[in-house]
Amino acid sequence: SSGINAEYGDDAHIFCTTEQIVEEIRGALDFLKTVYSVLGFNYELELSTRPEKFLGEIAVWDDAENRLKQALDEFGAPWELNPGDGAFYGPKIDITIKDALRRSFQCATIQLDFQLPIRFGLSYNAPDGTEQRPVIIHRAVLGSLERMMGILTENFAGKWPFWLSPRQVMVVPVMPMFNDYAKEVQQKLHNSHIVIDTDLDSGTTLNKKVRNAQLAQYNFIFVVGEKEQAGGTVNVRTRDNVVHGEFTIEGITEKLVRLRDTKSNTDILEE
To answer: How far apart are CA 45 and CA 109, in angstroms?
Structure first.
């Protein structure tokens, strides 16, 4: 349990005509694919159809289910049928993701709703001049935002990829006389909107500072001393103690900006 006092969902409500269902569902599936691909999740799709207890006419349900099947087929990803597990107000597409431990979570959902437009008394003027009833599509991609944060935290085991990390870089001077250079490095990377801190505690050894930064899950640690100050460089290592060596400030900034902007889930510095 995350011990929160409230939960917030990213549920959207799309009002559309019956003829627009396929197009809107395809758009929702494409949106979902984009988001989950960035987060690094694989997902499975299920079409949940009319339950035993339902509201509305069977012909309307059959038509809606066929439109959802068409949208899923056009989307191109594998999907399975889950008979009788739809909501009482309409069929739905359930999306299940798997984390790094292969645990399944149902976060996203795409649901058709025929009943709310009736209860709200909604209508629109069709091209033929008649009044028609719209359909509502409930679309949630992340579901509960707090729950998704918990899933992501466990999925990455607390080691956030650079683009998501709240602690991206720590600068560690080898001696207090290089504190000003450490601050200079901090400011230059800060200007490129990189989250960067400095450890200027004179009472802590260099090895302890590096270890503290690694335990705090800073993605990269920059060690700076006389050589780095003279050459305008930093010595780079990771939280997993992989030593990348010496880079110019401009060179490492360019690599980190690229790593952030491509939203890579692996902290690999490209050559």
So the answer is: 9
